[in-house]
Amino acid sequence: MLITRIRPSIWIPAMEVIWSVLTMVLASAKNFETLIVVRFLVGLAESTFYPAIQYVIGSWYKPDELGKRACIFHTASALGPMFSGFLQTGAYNGLNGVHGLAGWKWLFVIDGIITVPIALLGFLIMPDLPSNTKPSIFYTQEQIDIGRRRMAEIGRKPPAAFTRKKIAGFFTTWHIYTLVPLYVLFNNGGGSSNSMIFWYLYPTHPFSASRDAKTLILFRLKSFNKPRHTVYTIGQINTYPLGIQAVQVVTTLIYAWWSDIVRARWPPMLLAGTWAMTTNIVLASTPLYEHITRRWVFYYFTLVQGGLSGLILAWANELTGHDNEKRAFVVASCNMFAYVVQAWLPILIFPQVEQPRVFKGNVTTACINFSMMCFAMLTLYLSKRDQRRERKLRASTVPSESSDDYVAEDETHMDIKEANVKTQARASETDVSEVPVPTLTSEFRCAASIA
């Protein structure tokens, strides 16, 4: 919510600078208590980044453009681990023991060093909202006016004052009650990938679990190494498991272009949900150590729903665009509750004593993906219902009897007129039809995920 009052070009880069400094401090932690405190502050600083960027993206783009932009940004969560594999290899081979620091500590230092200049650059090049972006060498006044007009055309409102009625409206409409569960279910629909580490490392003994799908492959490769018999080097272990992120990147981009082409968010959700649900059913119903190649492939498929994040948040931006503050609240709530649930759910349904079989976890995850599809259909139904009601209201209501919805629609037309007047006023100086729409500059913090 702060980003609706503090300029994104200040808030987001500032949080990234803080994140960078704290991440480098992690390398100097001498005890577990210090590590926990600093890690908490790191999480606090980074928690604002993803929802804030998605909110800003949703402030500039129309529905037939938004899915691609949101998902392209989301691919950073997959591209980061891919590049970090090479980064880990270089740090371990070249920096392990330098100045008394272990290779893994140098990774924290490198993360911070990489992020600081990008964060500082954000102060200069990152746009704010169309309503408060100032002209600069990157964004002309004509481009800003076009951005305002474009958002007015689709009824996406600029920031407004907080009122008791507005805040109450966050909870008296259906959006938060379908979009937040939809995002929570998506975000917790890939837990079966965590079983891969147990499947390869210790078939009959429990071991500490990792949530990172890449780490699952790392331990699988390590299991081939025996005393005085090394099969895979550290460098190979860090670079081989990149196919997991490749699958996520490809599916994310396919979902994005498909969704924008058909101008609907729900079809990719049904495909990804069905795919993930089938994958978990196969994992639950087939033997562990027969058809090894098949099981390997299906473990890779457990993350195919990972590309839905950008689409769900794009949908949230579109459905709540008539109220800027509500839009920010819903987008932030989706991200917050998703990770609140993820903090405890895997421990409950994937206990390490049941690994790698985890029949209960695989079945539950299949149900989670089915439920995700149900909430996608519920969101679709309610949005279509609202559209039907709006059409009936337009056809039957005269201005003197207009409701809040009718007034909001009238205000949208006024926004368009105001934007058009500003654009026409500058037409004599610049042909605005030739001015490109400003493109958001997104920070792709490639190495952040390894922290």
Automatic annotation (TrEMBL):
Q: Which UniProt keywords apply?
A: Membrane, Transmembrane, Transmembrane helix, Transport
Could you tell me which InterPro entries the record lists for this protein?
MFS, MFS_trans_sf
Compartments annotated for it: namely: Membrane
Using the UniProt record, give the first listed, main subcellular location: membrane
Its Gene Ontology cellular component terms are: membrane
* Organism of derivation: Ganoderma sinense ZZ0214-1
The membrane topology of this protein is: Multi-pass membrane protein
Establish whether keyword Membrane is in the entry. Answer: yes
- The answer to whether keyword Membrane applies is yes
Q: Which Pfam families match?
A: MFS_1
Q: Which lineage do the record's taxonomy fields give for this organism? A: Eukaryota, Fungi, Dikarya, Basidiomycota, Agaricomycotina
State any single GO MF term: transmembrane transporter activity
- Source organism superkingdom: Eukaryota
Transmembrane ranges? 12-29, 35-58, 104-126, 167-186, 240-258, 270-290, 296-316, 328-351, 363-382
Protein name, please?
A: MFS general substrate transporter
